[in-house]
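Protocol step 4 of 6.
Sequence for MFS transporter (Agromyces tardus) entered exactly as in the expression construct, tag removed. Do not edit the line below.
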Amino acid sequence: MGIGLVDPILPAIAESLEATPTQTELLFTSYLLVTGIAMLGTSWVSSRIGAKKTLVIGLGIVVLFAAAAGMAQDVQSVIGFRAGWGLGNALFISTALATIVGAAAGGSGSAIILYEAALGLGIAIGPLLGGLLGTLSWRGPFFGTAVLMAIGLIAILVFLTDGADAAGRRPERTRLSAPVRALRQPALAVLAAAALFYNIGFFVLLAYSPFPLGFDAIGLGLTFFGWGVALAITSVFVAPLLTARMPRTRVLWIALPLLAVDLAVAGLVIDDPGALVVCIVAGGLVLGVLNTVLTECVMEATDLQRSVASSAYSAVRFLGGAVAPPAAAELARLISPEAPYFAAAGSVIVALAVVVAGHRALRRVDDAAPEPAAVEAEAITVGEGA
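Step 5 output, structure tokens:
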């Protein structure tokens, strides 16, 4: 639910704390930058202290920094607290799926279905709840997140046991340098570079759009509720159907140009809020496919442990997400309000060019069999972990 939490209250934060749009967009930058850097070490941490402790520490950090953000008196403090929040986010998303599957009493299949359903609902409901709480105060969504994460933390402490999985295996310890070394693999380097430029498009649509829309918190919450529903549907249902019928790289060759066109159209219709809403929701449909398929490709691209490969990939792609929001605000200030969308469309075209140029290194991802349910769910988790 926290993925789209901040979106509906960005304009309110800017107004209440007398912050510029660029300063306000740094709430995404600090969060994503720390999440990306921390992802390089999460597999090392969880393989040594166990999944339960990793989850508890991650949620505890989120509770602490979300509450602190709600009590902040200036935008610089909120930016700093969002950075701490990003550390907790990295620890949580790196171990969530494996923990749920390992703890499931009714088999992994039913656990994964419930997990995907919960993730999809959270992506959709988060912005709506943020909008509702944002009508009370810009501080409301931050305190709401702290309360929800505290409930999750208590549930983990009470109900979850730690240790070996159902087969009696304990996590294989990984080296701290493993994710960085993983980027030497050509296929993983191609996918990480493509994801960096793709994520610029993702976060321009997500983080910049609240400003040109000009809606209040409820209006923004409803808009991004529609975005979240669209993204969840294609992540969980459409992406698996597409990859079962065509090579994964072909799905990328189709979806990336569609996203670029959607962003360019958003720039053209920026003065029409209704048309811009349609572009945002349509973008969610494409983003859901791209997030899942890109992460599936990462998991099949090498013989590395999936946790190591996804950590390396996520660290690079989050850099694009960290740069995009403040850069979009500056482009809007220096050039024109539509310039960020056109720049984002160009960035997505660069991502396409990287995938096409690196197609030889990606042969393995097309030759692999369709993903089992657990891998599909992990792809959704890592893809939507922002």
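Step 6, annotate. Residues 7-165+176-383 form a domain with the Growth Hormone; Chain: A; fold (CATH 1.20.1250.20).
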